[in-house]
Amino acid sequence: MTQSASPPNRALLELPQVQRERLSHIDFKLYFLGELRRTDVADRFGTGPAAATRDIAQYKELAPENLVLDNTDKIYRPTANFVPLFDHAPQRVLTALSRGFGEGIGEELKPMVRCEFPMALSEPKMSILAPITRAIHRNKAVRVSYTSIESGRSEREIVPIALVNNGIRWHVRAYDRRRKGFRDFVFTRMENPVLLEDSPITDEEKVDQDVQWNRIIELELVPHPAHPRPEVVMMDYGMPDGVLSVKVRAANAGYMLRRSAIDCSPDHSLSGPEYALWLKDPLALYGANNAQLAPGYRNPRDDSENKPIKAL
């Protein structure tokens, strides 16, 4: 099977969104699971068998070479010439395969294929998460008890602007009214968040004023010079030219580089099998507040080794 989607179909683009969602689900089932039943559509969207039959017929009209009915068990299967009708985003596909694709709720969600992924050791409580996401959506401030490594427990008023997953834990990017600046606040260190309905947001507290959040850094990653098989690294990261260009917010750069074990030392001096990539130009991180989190990073303004970054 080919990996790229077919060119956008004009008739497909003119369909209502709900109809495209049903056709996308048909495309997904055929492409990634290799089979489709009428009940797959009817159960997923709560439609009757007749409506599911119409959806499959419409899909076949748009992509007649994509599926064939196996009369032995009345299951549609992809043909050898199958070309996906939709451009399926890899992260969404992997989430669907490992977590389920909208079938069931709560603990009923089940993976579509056998899979394994890292256990989450730190997850936010929903009673903490919900007020924060409401604040982001409605542009409100929150009063919260927060325990930081540096100063212990204190009452804070923060203005949340975005959720961030650094690969190990979730935190919220927010304006801290006490410190008068934007900071990262870890969910598991929060207690008793209260939405402040009558506390207006000032201009300095808005997301467009967060320089670190709005600054985009472009990083060029290359196979680590000490790696015994650079061609394998190039295959792993899809870099036929030997360079992987990544754009990341300055506020998240250190987290990303640490999670991915990128050697950011100027002389690629870190050793070990975990260091498959090297940051070609460590100066690209200059000015990023959490650059010290990047493995091996040395501030060009310092003659000595950097001190560890202070956590909130």
From TrEMBL:
Species whose genome carries this gene: Paraburkholderia strydomiana
Spans traversing the lipid bilayer: none
Domain WYL: 128-192
Ranges where the DNA-binding transcriptional repressor CapW winged helix-turn-helix domain occurs: 20-86
UniProt-listed InterPro entries: CapW-like (IPR016634), CapW_CTD (IPR059020), CBASS_pafABC_assoc_protein (IPR051534), WHD_CapW (IPR059019), WYL_dom (IPR026881)
Record protein name field: WYL domain-containing protein
A Pfam match: WYL
Residue ranges occupied by any DNA-binding transcriptional repressor CapW C-terminal dimerisation domain in the UniProt entry: 216-282
